[in-house]
Amino acid sequence: MKCADVVIIGAGIAGASMAYFLVQRGCKDVMIVEKEDSPGYHTSGRSAAVLSQLDVDEVFMKLSLMSVPFFYSPPSGFADVPLIHPNGILVVGQGASFKLLCGLARLAGRLGIASQEWSPEETVGRLPALEKRFVDGGLFITKDGALDVHALLWGFLNGAKKGGARLELNAEVTDIHVEDHRVRGVTTRAGEIACRWIVNAAGAWANPTALLAGARPLPLTPCRRHIIVTRPREDFPIGDWPLTMDTSRHFYFRPESGGILASPMDQEPMEPCDAKTDEIQVARAADFLTRFTPKIAPKTIINQWAGLRTIAADNAPVIGEDPEVKGFFWCAGQAGHGMETSPALGEIAAHLLLEGYTSRFPEALIAPGRFHRGRLAWPAIVARRAASFLGWLARPNRP
Ligand SMILES: Cc1cc2nc3c(=O)[nH]c(=O)nc-3n(C[C@H](O)[C@H](O)[C@H](O)COP(=O)(O)OP(=O)(O)OC[C@H]3O[C@@H](n4cnc5c(N)ncnc54)[C@H](O)[C@@H]3O)c2cc1C
Q1: How far is the centre of ligand 1, averaged over its atoms, from the C-alpha of 363 (Å)?
Q2: pLDDT tens digits for 62-100?
Q3: Residue 143 near ligand 1, beta carbon < 6 Å
Q4: Of all protein residues, whose CA lies closest to atom 53 belonging to ligand 1?
Q5: What is the model's pLDDT at position 374?
Q6: What is the 45 CA–ligand 1 centroid distance (Å)?
Q7: Which domains are present in the chain?
């Protein structure tokens, strides 16, 4: 039987980043087990690949803000290419929702998220594919940009492997051994592994994985989202545009391989699976481009895919040891933020597993135990998050 100190289930961005930071902190006996034949096959290989810090949710906003320095200056030797193409993110919209977002951006500015407000003329001048009649203005988030998710995922994996971690592919975990409420090992399709810790970084399969360990499932819902890549009908020059998100119509687009990548920002709950596309959502994405950005209306759809974003009921990630099954550590619920928060979340998770605490983040906001207190937990969760946000706002220049 093989042995490891820590077995990480899942070689997506959550498992890879946590393995990297465990190794960095001296825990080298780590084994990542992945059911597919390549890392990042599921959600991590299907994202829109951007860093977009502004969010109505403070937990993910803080975590992506904390990750920014890593993207701009990764450790030496982490990747051969820059992790970020810093061309910003442009948010456009109309009416009250757009005004609210501009207000939020001003608040977020106090936290260190720099943005510029553009008039409708300036917005269309900078992004000529937009129609002035559909935008009340633009909000440009300056330090955002496109992430190289391949370099990021492999940077974490190669860094972990260099430090001693092992990666086993085609090794689906089919059973988890627990004795006296403590994990002892796993059965995989590639054999058995004895271990002290098991990390549940199984993405959409986080709850089925918890059930294998006899842990209580948490309110985590995998939700499908679509992306299409199109060739525009007209020969309209596509510039180095930022990802542009229309908050009034709920869709986004950005340049991709000489064409346009777009998403209808759908969010359909589903059972964990290898998500396939649905023609209605593909048509919706194409329709958004045709109606609201007619200059880049699609001629053909050259690629399409769907992935599952796994979202916790309070829209915060779930990071920490299970309160009832010792040694079973959750690293799940990254929702639509797993890439942009991976440096901060991987490091926080490694701290929590090895030291049992972290000074980097209020751990109660992300602990799995927050859901274990039944209905009474909700007022406590809301109060804790409000207090944390207000406390954070009160501290100027806080990254
Ligand atoms: C359309 C779309 C756009 C997105 N855009 C962005 C974006 O622009 N920026 C951003 O930051 N985030 C974005 N996201 C979200 C981001 O992709 C996810 O948060 C992130 O990939 C989740 O990573 P993960 O490692 O938890 O899950 P996954 O990548 O799904 O990894 C989980 C792994 O666990 C493995 N596994 C499961 N069960 C077992 C088992 N029993 N045994 C062994 N292995 C197992 C799976 O095979 C899988 O490889 C987007 C997501 C989607 C779908």
Answers
A1: 22
A2: 999 999 999 999 999 999 999 999 999 999 999 998 999
A3: no
A4: 307
A5: 64
A6: 7
A7: 2-46+150-219+313-394 (3.50.50.60), 89-142+221-312 (3.30.9.10)
